[in-house]
C-alpha cells in the first residue's frame, strides 16, 4: 500500500489518516503478532507480545473476523478504511 515508505513512515501515515498515535498502532500490531503467527502463511513470523496468552475480548472479535478472510479481502477492506 505504501511501497516507498519504511515501517515507521507507514505507521505515521496511517496514524495521521485515522487520527491515532503511531505508537498505538504499533502496540496493537504487537498485541496481535503471536496470534497471527498461528495462521500466517507467508513472510517472517513476529514475536510481538508473546507473553500474552490471550487477546482482550474486543481484540479477539477483530481477530476472529479477519481470520476467516483471504488476504486480498483484508487488503481491500484496509483500502476502504483508509479511503485509498
CA radius of gyration: 13 Å
| Structural category | mainly alpha
The residue ranges in which pLDDT falls below 50 over 5 or more consecutive positions are none
Number of domains: 1
Total strand count, please? 0
The total count of helices amounts to 4
Output the helix-strand order. Answer: HHHH
Overall helicity: 55-70%
Query: What is the 3D shape?
Result: globular
Bin the strand percentage: under 5%
Question: Tell me about the biggest sheet?
Answer: none
Assembly context of the chains: single chain
Describe the structure.
- With 84 residues, the protein is mainly alpha-helical.
- It has one domain (7-81).
- 58% of the residues lie in helices and 0% in strands.
- It is built from four helices and no strands.
- α1 (7-18) crosses α2 (22-36).
- The chain is globular.
Short description:
By secondary structure, the protein is mostly helical. Helix content is 58%, strand content 0%. It has one domain.
List keywords for this structure.
84 residues, mainly alpha, 4 helices, 0% strand, globular
Topology at a glance:
Elements lengths: L6 H12 L3 H15 L20 H11 L3 H11 L3
Helix pairs in contact: 1-2
Amino acid at each position: 500500500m505504501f511501497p516507498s515508505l519504511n515501517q515507521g513512515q507507514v505507521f505515521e501515515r496511517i496514524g495521521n489518516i485515522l487520527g491515532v498515535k503511531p505508537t498505538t498502532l504499533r502496540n496493537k500490531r504487537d498485541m496481535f503478532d503471536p496470534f497471527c503467527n498461528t495462521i500466517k502463511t507467508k513472510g517472517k513470523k513476529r514475536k510481538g507480545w508473546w507473553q500474552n496468552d490471550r487477546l482482550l475480548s474486543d481484540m479477539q472479535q477483530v481477530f476472529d473476523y479477519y481470520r476467516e478472510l483471504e488476504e486480498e479481502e483484508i487488503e481491500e477492506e484496509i483500502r476502504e478504511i483508509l479511503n485509498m
